[in-house]
Amino acid sequence: MNLQRLFEKQRELKEKIDYEGIDKYEKLTLAFIVEMGECANDWRGFKYWSRNTEPKETLLEEYVDGLHFALEKGIELLDSEEIMMLPSYSNMAIEKKRNVTEQFKMIILAAIQLEVLREESSSYLDEEYTVFLEVFLGLGEMLGFTWEQIERGYLDKNKVNHARQESGY
Q: Which Gene3D superfamilies match (predicted)?
């Protein structure tokens, strides 16, 4: 997976959306959390009350929707040089919890923690963002996706998102 390429694609989409309201980062964090909820809903593994715990076909699409917001969080928090300094996927210490349910909770917690650190003007944002990304990428692995599937899914959905912006979505 070429993370730098994905950051560039996300930057292009961000420029097309062109929203700069003072509440942008708050909305971005909530959008990410909502996407993680949709992803968990499609995964279905936490639904102890349901006999049907098979993931839905749209699970990858929901995961890459989250990836769009995860990348945008990086673009909002870090400057271009810091993004270039992020480890490549092959050099990341992908973080995995004991099960997928814990991983979902950890990624939501990490997203909120990034917002708190941003508000405090923390000097550790690059390190914390790396951890956030490692937890997010760990979730993708735990859901059974290959990096090729994730990258292809992201690029396909990115095209859809560009088309939506052009049509006034």
A: Type II deoxyuridine triphosphatase
